Amino acid sequence: MKHNIGLYPGHAAKSALKAAMIECEPGSFDDVVINSKIPVVVDFYANWCGPCKLVAPIFNKLAEELPDGIQFVKVDTEKHEDTIEKYKLQGLPLFAVFVNGRIMLSHSGALSKEPLRTFIKTGLSKVEDDDTITDLIQAISI
Predict the structure, then answer these.
(1) Which of 7, 20, 21, 49 is catalytic?
(2) Is position 52 annotated as part of the catalytic site?
(3) Which listed site, 52, 132, 133, 135, has its alpha carbon 20 to 30 Å from 37?
(4) How much is the pTM?
(5) Cβ proximity of 136 and 7 under 8 Å
(6) Rounded to whole angstroms, how far apart are CA atoms 117 and 63?
(7) Which among 41, 52, 66, 75 is annotated as catalytic?
């Protein structure tokens, strides 16, 4: 079930503004992730990576289930080599939680659904003094 808690001004309905999960096009990482006004959970993957293929449906399912106010983005590492070098990312799949353009937490390796949900909550909990993020964390637990 999707929870529309309208946490960010102008982002009351995710379905009206963007898909639950988007594929980041080459050259758009900064626009989609770094400059996002809402937290972003990124799945860095490669088509040749077996574990990446295993976790893709889990990532997509959480994108549908978790509350509005979080953007889920998939980044094909073969198309974003500059981003991988810039952030010194290693290991696939690699999940990262970005808030205000900063990596709050990253994890290399496959995760099942509940550990991935916990990872997202942990990454968001690293943001201090933000009632909106606190509300998001509470909504993830519903």
Answers:
(1) 49
(2) yes
(3) 52
(4) 0.83
(5) yes
(6) 10
(7) 52
